[in-house]
Amino acid sequence: MQKDVETLTALGEAIKATLGSAVHSADVAFGELTLRAETSNTIRVLTTLRDDPRFLFKNSTDLTAADYPAARNALILSGIFCRQSTTHACA
Protein backbone atom coordinates (compact mmCIF):
# COMPACT_ATOMS: atom_id res chain seq x y z
CA MET A 1 0.00 0.00 0.00
CA GLN A 2 2.83 2.42 0.85
CA LYS A 3 4.36 1.77 -2.57
CA ASP A 4 1.07 2.75 -4.23
CA VAL A 5 1.00 6.01 -2.25
CA GLU A 6 4.58 6.77 -3.23
CA THR A 7 3.88 5.92 -6.89
CA LEU A 8 0.75 8.08 -6.99
CA THR A 9 2.51 10.94 -5.20
CA ALA A 10 5.34 10.85 -7.74
CA LEU A 11 2.81 10.75 -10.59
CA GLY A 12 0.98 13.76 -9.13
CA GLU A 13 4.23 15.70 -8.86
CA ALA A 14 5.10 14.87 -12.48
CA ILE A 15 1.67 16.07 -13.62
CA LYS A 16 2.01 19.29 -11.62
CA ALA A 17 5.48 19.88 -13.09
CA THR A 18 4.11 19.39 -16.60
CA LEU A 19 1.00 21.55 -16.21
CA GLY A 20 2.44 24.19 -13.89
CA SER A 21 -0.11 26.57 -12.43
CA ALA A 22 -2.94 24.81 -14.28
CA VAL A 23 -2.96 22.27 -11.43
CA HIS A 24 -3.39 23.72 -7.93
CA SER A 25 -2.76 20.52 -6.01
CA ALA A 26 -2.21 16.79 -6.31
CA ASP A 27 -3.22 14.71 -3.29
CA VAL A 28 -3.33 10.98 -2.62
CA ALA A 29 -6.08 9.51 -0.44
CA PHE A 30 -7.84 6.15 -0.36
CA GLY A 31 -5.56 4.82 -3.10
CA GLU A 32 -6.51 7.54 -5.57
CA LEU A 33 -4.77 10.60 -6.97
CA THR A 34 -6.85 13.79 -6.86
CA LEU A 35 -5.86 16.82 -8.95
CA ARG A 36 -7.43 20.25 -8.44
CA ALA A 37 -7.58 22.79 -11.25
CA GLU A 38 -9.59 25.86 -12.22
CA THR A 39 -12.51 25.35 -14.59
CA SER A 40 -10.72 27.40 -17.25
CA ASN A 41 -7.93 24.78 -17.34
CA THR A 42 -10.18 21.71 -17.62
CA ILE A 43 -9.59 21.02 -21.32
CA ARG A 44 -5.82 21.53 -21.03
CA VAL A 45 -5.53 19.27 -17.98
CA LEU A 46 -7.74 16.48 -19.34
CA THR A 47 -6.07 16.58 -22.76
CA THR A 48 -2.59 16.38 -21.22
CA LEU A 49 -3.62 13.52 -18.94
CA ARG A 50 -4.97 11.64 -21.96
CA ASP A 51 -2.30 12.39 -24.57
CA ASP A 52 1.00 12.69 -22.71
CA PRO A 53 2.74 9.29 -22.99
CA ARG A 54 3.96 9.61 -19.38
CA PHE A 55 0.40 9.66 -18.04
CA LEU A 56 -2.04 7.97 -20.48
CA PHE A 57 -5.28 8.50 -18.57
CA LYS A 58 -7.25 7.06 -21.49
CA ASN A 59 -10.37 5.82 -19.70
CA SER A 60 -13.05 8.21 -18.53
CA THR A 61 -14.93 6.34 -15.82
CA ASP A 62 -17.28 8.98 -14.41
CA LEU A 63 -18.36 12.60 -14.60
CA THR A 64 -20.19 14.16 -11.67
CA ALA A 65 -20.37 17.36 -9.66
CA ALA A 66 -20.30 18.46 -6.03
CA ASP A 67 -22.16 21.47 -4.65
CA TYR A 68 -20.66 23.40 -1.72
CA PRO A 69 -23.40 25.98 -0.94
CA ALA A 70 -22.18 26.83 2.56
CA ALA A 71 -18.65 27.65 1.49
CA ARG A 72 -18.02 31.38 1.88
CA ASN A 73 -21.74 32.15 1.44
CA ALA A 74 -21.48 31.46 -2.27
CA LEU A 75 -22.55 28.67 -4.58
CA ILE A 76 -19.51 26.61 -5.45
CA LEU A 77 -20.07 23.82 -7.95
CA SER A 78 -17.15 21.55 -8.73
CA GLY A 79 -16.94 19.28 -11.74
CA ILE A 80 -15.42 15.92 -10.96
CA PHE A 81 -13.85 14.02 -13.84
CA CYS A 82 -12.82 10.47 -12.99
CA ARG A 83 -10.07 9.18 -15.27
CA GLN A 84 -8.12 5.92 -15.22
CA SER A 85 -4.62 5.31 -16.49
CA THR A 86 -4.08 1.72 -17.54
CA THR A 87 -0.34 2.45 -17.51
CA HIS A 88 -0.30 3.64 -13.90
CA ALA A 89 -3.03 1.46 -12.39
CA CYS A 90 -2.15 0.39 -8.86
CA ALA A 91 -3.00 -3.16 -7.88
Description of the structure:
With 91 residues, this protein is of the alpha+beta class. The chain has one domain: 2-Layer Sandwich (Beta Polymerase, domain 2), CATH 3.30.460.80. It has two helices and four strands, in the order H-E-E-H-E-E. The chain has helices at 2-19, 42-51, and strands spanning 25-29, 32-36, 59-67, 77-84. The strands form two sheets. A two-stranded antiparallel ribbon has the order 1-2. It has a two-stranded antiparallel ribbon with strand order 3-4. The model has no long low-confidence stretch (mean pLDDT 82).
CATH superfamily: NADH:ubiquinone oxidoreductase Nqo5 subunit
Helix content: 25-40%
Run of helices and strands = HEEHEE
- Spans of at least 5 consecutive residues with low confidence: none
What's the total number of strands? 4
Q: CATH fold name, please?
A: Beta Polymerase, domain 2
Tell me the name of the CATH class: Alpha Beta
| Alpha carbon gyration radius | 14 Å
| Strand percentage | 25-35%
SSE map:
Elements: H1 2-19, E1 25-29, E2 32-36, H2 42-51, E3 59-67, E4 77-84
Antiparallel strand pairs: 1-2, 3-4
